[in-house]
Amino acid sequence: MKWSKKRFTFVIIPDANSSVKRVHISAVVLVFIPILFLILALSVIYLYLLYHNSAGSISSLRHKLSDSSSRYERMLADKNDSIESLQTQVAGLSEQAKSIQRKMDEVDKLENQVKNMVGLPSSGSSKGDAGGAEAVDGLVEDGDPSDGGMGGEDLPVTDAEMTALTTSTRTDLAALGPQLEQLKQRLEQTKAAVAAAQKALRTTPTIWPTDNRRITSLFGVRKDPFTGKARFHAGIDIAGSVGDEVYAAADGVVVHSGRDSAEGNNITIDHGNGIRTRYMHLSRLIAQVGDKVEKGDVIGELGSTGRSTGPHLHYEVVLNGEPSDPRTYLKATRKVGE
Ligand SMILES: [Zn+2]
Which one, out of 49, 75, 91, 280, has a CA that is 20 to 30 A from the CA of 332? Predict the structure, then answer.
């Protein structure tokens, strides 16, 4: 009989009163059960080792994941900081663009003030060209931030708002270049115009030829002090004392400096543009023919030479050969340049 066909009989005796039980088990089963147990035990050990290994890997993976995630968080935070900083810079640029625009408007005003000072008409403002620089979607206020208080809700800026601000800032900045160029050209024109106006002013007899401002005889028809007959008085007589300084009423060239029986010691200055001034009855001639004189220069001293009843200055303004009332020119004080 082959051993695999053998059967073993186990006798089980529960206790004295129960009957004996017999269990028949084949030899094959008896051999395979321990082998099965061994395989099972080995499998369990293998699985345990496998699990142990995996647990290590999982833990290290989890660590890595946590590391990367905190690194990404840091990167994200950095990026957010950068974005916020860029937003702040855009907002700053926008403010600067507006500030430059305001300053240009101020320059416009100053330019007009300068023009008014020399009697030139005001020019148009460059403000109209700034139309393209207006706020987009009403996001950007065009007012001066220093106009009033700031505050209220402090909400984070949305992407759309940032885009709008960036666009409007770019437009503002792009508009500034041509506007500055225009302003520069206009200021150059104004400078030339002011220089011309100043030259005209310097060659216009606007100042008093004496420190004394008392007019003793007006321009026009009057009774002659010697004959009592009606005569035309071609200038004004200004009171004063012998030796008082007599000033050139404007820049010009002395075209006459000499003595005459009626006019006494007298000087004529040509100021160009058909304007001449004449100074008579001087006690002393200082400026000579050919002298270039400036407004306010002392040209002689007041006196009573020639046909004169007492010390005074006979002062004439001649426009294109015709006597003109000097008082229409005398608006300012004697100070040079006014
Ligand atoms: Zn006179």
Answer: 280
Determine the Cα–Cα distance for residues 212 and 200; give it in Å rounded to an integer: 25
Positive or negative, the CA dihedral 172, 177, 180, 181 is: negative
Q: How far does residue 219's CA lie from ligand 1's centre (Å)? A: 8
Neighbours of 329 (CB within 10 A): 19
User: Ligand 1 mean position to 327 CA, how many Å?
Assistant: 14
Pairing of strands 236-239, 215-217: antiparallel
Q: What is the number of helices (H) and of strands (E) in the chain? A: 2, 15
Read off the pTM: 0.58
Beta bridge partners of 269: 254, 277
User: What is the CA(161)–ligand 1 centre distance, in A?
Assistant: 79
DSSP 303: B
The second-level CATH assignment, the architecture, of 215-328 is: Distorted Sandwich (2.70)
Quote the tokens at residue 230: 């009606």
Percentage of the chain modeled with pLDDT above 70: 88
Residue-level pLDDT at 98: 87
Spatial contact of 239 and 312, defined as CB atoms under 8 Å apart:
yes
Q: Given pLDDT bands bounded at 50, 70 and 90, which one contains residue 111?
A: confident
Question: What is the Cα–Cα distance from 315 to 217, expressed in whole angstroms?
Answer: 10
- C-alpha gyration radius of the chain: 55
Q: Where are the alpha helices (DSSP H) in the chain?
A: 27-117, 159-202
Give the tokens for residue 36.
């099965």
The enclosing H or E element of 301 equals strand 298-301
CA 53 to centroid of ligand 1, rounded, Å: 127
291 and 219 Cβ atoms separated by less than 8 Å: no
- 217 CA → ligand 1 middle, Å: 7
| Domain boundaries along the sequence of the chain | 3-81, 215-328
Distance CA 230, CA 234 (A): 13
Q: Does residue 173 register a pLDDT over 80?
A: yes
**3-class SS at 202?**
helix
